[in-house]
Write a structure and sequence with these properties.
- The protein has nine helices and eleven strands.
- With about 325 residues, it is α+β, with helices and mostly antiparallel strands.
- The chain has two domains: about 200 residues, no CATH class; about 90 residues, no CATH class.
- Helix 7 packs antiparallel against helix 8.
- The longest helix has 19 residues.
- The radius of gyration is 23 Å and the shape is globular.
- The chain starts with a strand and ends with a helix.
- The model has no long low-confidence stretch (mean pLDDT about 85).
- This is Recombination activating protein 1.
- One of its GO terms (molecular function) is zinc ion binding.
- InterPro entries: RAG1, RAG1_DNA-bd, RAG1_pre-RNase_H, RAG1_RNase_H, RAG1_ZnC2.
């Protein structure tokens, strides 16, 4: 009845099964108490939330077809709290190393979170009679990149934690798993829409969480940089990668990009893509399909997730070619 745990030191520690079970519970989101000030808009204040249905929180409109898929996720704030509690020792160690008195550092903490989302490829059952679901899966996850604190009498923030391996699977925490093809824009919107709403609510509030025995206040910032080009196109409502509009960040066509390797700049933003979608939908100037497509430059669906305009893969390639 005994199981063995490998500690971080690599030593084998034998533990009775019930001890492992309780240790496991502490690691899963939904174990730690926390509070938001002000309370999150449209999000329940209960903290003991475990795994929820990925489609909960989506309010279907009249013409929506119910999404025929299976999705499971943690609530975003609950998962972030679990991740921060995981880093409790690192946070306290960082304060000590910087010579900061932890009893005075109760507010002014800033947490930068990197979001990632990608398809996991074909996950179909080769045999067996499970439920009929799409044969592709998508995972949305996040990594805590850095934590900094600004002491009351200081002007500059001091970084007390920096993730050394930001692309490691050990630091990348899954938030939502769904059976869906990553090019199924409608189903992705239905599942990730509530996640985006929760993230937006967290930006306007402060997290109050006990770290090192004292209640501390955290502000969260999100950077959506772990998306590849295909995913960015899908979430920003752009035509797929075979489009003549070659880029997710500017209006270059393939012909223009091949002629001009230098003068590329980031011109797209989320709100502009939304405006273009409305033009695409309403066609206010009664233009032909080609004229309309030329006007919206590759926007084909309603974008639902704002991705940070950092340099994308294509601009990096163009830059390398120029070098």
């Amino acid at each position: 009845m005994y199981r063995t745990v490998k500690a971080t030191s690599g030593r084998q520690i034998f533990q009775p099964l019930h001890t492992l079970r309780s240790a496991e519970k502490e690691l899963l989101p939904g174990f730690h108490q926390f509070e938001w000030q002000p309370a999150l808009k449209n999000v329940s204040s209960s903290w003991d939330v475990g795994i929820i249905d990925g489609l909960s929180g989506w309010t279907a409109s009249v013409d929506d077809v119910p999404a025929d898929t299976i999705a499971r996720r943690f609530r975003y704030d609950v998962a972030l709290v679990s991740a921060l509690k995981d880093l409790e020792e690192d946070i306290m160690e960082g304060l000590r190393e910087r010579g900061l008195d932890d009893s005075t550092c109760t507010s002014g903490f800033t947490v930068v979170v990197k979001e990632s989302c990608d398809g996991m490829g074909d996950v179909s059952e080769k045999h067996g009679s499970g439920p009929a679901v799409p044969e592709k899966a998508v995972r949305f996850s996040f990594t805590i990149m850095s934590i900094s604190v600004r002491a009351d009498d200081e002007e500059d923030a001091v970084t007390i934690f920096q993730e050394q391996k930001p692309n490691s699977e050990l630091s990348c925490r899954p938030l939502c798993l769904m059976f869906v093809d990553e090019s199924d824009h409608e189903t992705l919107t239905a599942i990730l829409g509530p996640v985006v709403a929760e993230r937006k609510a967290m930006l306007e509030s402060r997290l109050i969480l006990s770290v090192g025995g004292l209640l501390r206040s955290f502000r969260l910032f999100f950077r959506g940089t772990g998306f590849d080009e295909k995913m960015v196109r899908e979430m920003e409502g752009l035509e797929a990668s075979g489009s003549m509009y070659v880029c997710t960040l500017c209006d270059s066509t393939r012909a223009e990009a091949s002629q001009n390797m230098v003068l590329h700049s980031i011109t797209r933003c989320h709100t502009e893509n939304l405006e273009r979608y409305e033009i695409w939908r309403k066609n206010p100037f009664s233009e032909s399909a080609d004229e309309l497509r030329d006007r919206v430059k590759g926007v084909s669906a309603k974008p639902f997730m704002e991705t940070q305009p950092t340099l994308d893969a294509l601009h990096c390639d163009i830059g390398n070619a120029t070098e």
